[in-house]
Amino acid sequence: MNMHWKKYCCFVTLLLGMLVAFGCSSHEEAPTMDQKTLESELVNKVWNLKNLFARDVDTDEPLTLKFNADGTVEGFGGCNLFNGKYTLTGDSLSFGPMATTRKACGAALGEQEYTYLTFLATISKVKVEDDELKLFSADQSEPMVFTTGTGGLFW
Asked: Which keywords does this chain's UniProt record carry (predicted)?
């Protein structure tokens, strides 16, 4: 009886230790926003692309994205304006096909715009934190990062 009690105590102690070790992980994600809060953070703001999957974006004119309350999205791809539809369910986000204007801007801007719109089509998750919009793709390890900030009072 005494030996069984020791085994039982060892088992319970081991089990509690494992629960503490796995339950206190520092890699826990922040709780996701509920859909209404997320929508209010996204909608009717012009988001400027800051980082394209770990690559800084430095353009003369910002690449933009604006979510509208009616489920449409619009923006500037570096050469042309674009618009389309988006679907937001919880923190899952997807974009429908985008329509663009047809202004010719040269090879570099055309490639930049093509890359931007192609990557938007791969987005599956969204997160807004600290005035940053983060769009995640299953194909990339880092998100696309957007801000609403401007340079300052006079620029």
From this structure: Signal
**82-104, pLDDT tens digit by residue?**
999 999 999 999 999 999 999 98
Q: Of 146, 9, 123, 139, nearest to 65 (Cα)?
A: 146
Q: What is the DSSP letter of 131?
A: T
What is the rounded CA–CA span in Å between residue 97 and residue 84?
6
User: Within the chain, where are the H helices?
Assistant: 2-23, 35-42, 107-120
- Strand bridging mode 64-67 / 72-76: antiparallel
Phi and psi dihedrals of 10, rounded to 5?
Answer: -65, -45
CATH code for the domain defined by 35-147: 2.40.128.270
